[in-house]
Design goal:
With 90 residues, this protein is an alpha+beta fold. It is built from three helices and five strands, in the order H-H-E-E-E-E-E-H. The chain has two domains: 38 residues; 52 residues, HU Protein, Chain A, CATH 4.10.520.10. The mean pLDDT is 95.
Length: 90
Amino acid sequence: MTKADLVNYIFEKIGLPKTEIQKIVDTLFETLKEGLVEDEIVKISGFGVFTVRKKGSRMGRNPKSMEPVEIKPRRVVTFKPSDKLKEKLK
């Protein structure tokens, strides 16, 4: 599902103008991004929790040349679905 699909789905359900829905969806995602950049935990009741995890450096291997390469530390976003979402996915 893309953002455009999401906007169309909300339009069909609620009937607000698509331009307004687009602004709301964009604001929602921008707020989520800002929270994650600031290392905040983003909890959406009934959906799940987004967190940022720090991964340390480690040694890897270039698959083409098979030479060892250091993989630098980085931050990754993780998602843990809520129990309600897990139940619906069964």
